[in-house]
Design brief:
The complex is a heterodimer of chains A (96) and B (181). Chain A has 96 residues and is mainly alpha-helical. Chain A is built from 2 helices and no strands. In chain B, strands 1-2 form a two-stranded antiparallel ribbon. By secondary structure, chain B is mainly alpha-helical. The chains are: A mainly alpha (96), B mainly alpha (181).
């Protein structure tokens, strides 16, 4: 008669995994890996696109600020020129 | 490089070999599936759980340091997932130990019914003692190894083992006409 613990050991002996088990696990792990690679690629692409967009917006902003500054400078020159002409006119009137 | 160096299970040989994830699945599929099967007593659920254990291993593959560590990791994760699944889904086989029907006649030792009866008795145990018995008799682990795996005091593991074995032996002996040792 077998010892009770031997009976238990026999009842709890390892069983073979179902047919194709390893193949199914490996296939699932690869699908997960490829999905992760794809997702990482998508995230990286989004980041690059985001950075490029931000840089483009900054460039447009800088160009607009430059143009505004140029316009202000030209206006300042115009005002200065007008003032100088006025002063020249007055000087000529005093000392003909 | 995806391979890791692993120690053979035979400590005398301490054979080192290169192991990759695919080999790990092939080498340990029976162990992980059996832990789940003996615990859940449902082949489909056991396969699902075993697959999830290996997918978790795939995620943590870079953390695995050796063959011994791999084996420990798989046993630990499989045990934890089994216990969690039963607790979460209330999947416990609700037959109390006292209600497991005793066989109507004495069964010879090779009778497959006897094995089935033992499995029924085991399934009637609570989650922790059930897993402790499975680790003890399927994996042949010492109480100290089980304690480390399940992160519980050694005295608790020993007490679960003693109590569960005494209970099962009593029921089993009664079923076999008192002829078991």
């Amino acid at each position: 008669m077998k010892d009770f613990e031997d009976q238990l050991r026999e009842a709890l002996a390892r069983k073979p995994a179902p047919d194709g088990f390893a193949g199914r696990v490996i296939a699932r792990s690869r699908r997960k890996s490829s999905w992760k690679t794809w997702a990482a690629g998508a995230v990286a692409a989004s980041l690059v696109a985001g950075v490029l967009t931000v840089k483009q917006v900054e460039a447009v902003k800088e160009r607009e600020q430059g143009q505004a500054a140029r316009a202000q400078l030209l206006r300042a020159f115009e005002i200065t020129r007008t003032k100088v002409k006025q002063i020249e006119g007055k000087v000529e009137t005093v000392n003909p | 490089m995806t391979g890791i160096a692993t120690l053979s299970q035979q400590p005398a040989r301490q054979e080192l070999r290169l192991l990759d994830f695919d080999s790990a699945v092939r080498d340990h599929q029976s162990m992980v599936f059996s832990l789940a099967y003996h615990f859940l007593r449902d082949s489909a659920l056991a396969e699902e759980l075993a697959q999830d254990v290996f997918l978790e291993l795939h995620l943590h593959w870079s953390d695995i340091r050796s063959g011994g560590h791999l084996l420990f990791w798989l046993r630990k994760v499989a045990s934890r997932r089994c216990i969690d699944q039963v607790r979460r889904r209330k999947f416990r086989v609700h037959t109390a130990l006292d209600r497991v029907p005793e066989p109507f006649a004495w069964m010879p030792e090779a009778d497959p019914l006897l094995k089935q009866y033992l499995e029924q008795l085991l399934a009637a145990l609570f989650e922790t003692p059930r897993m402790i018995l499975i680790l003890r008799f399927q994996e042949d682990l010492d109480p100290s190894e089980i304690a480390e795996l399940l992160e519980m005091p050694l005295s608790t593991v020993k007490s679960h083992l003693q109590r569960s074995l005494a209970l099962l032996r009593k029921k089993f002996t009664a079923a076999t006409g008192g002829e078991m040792p």
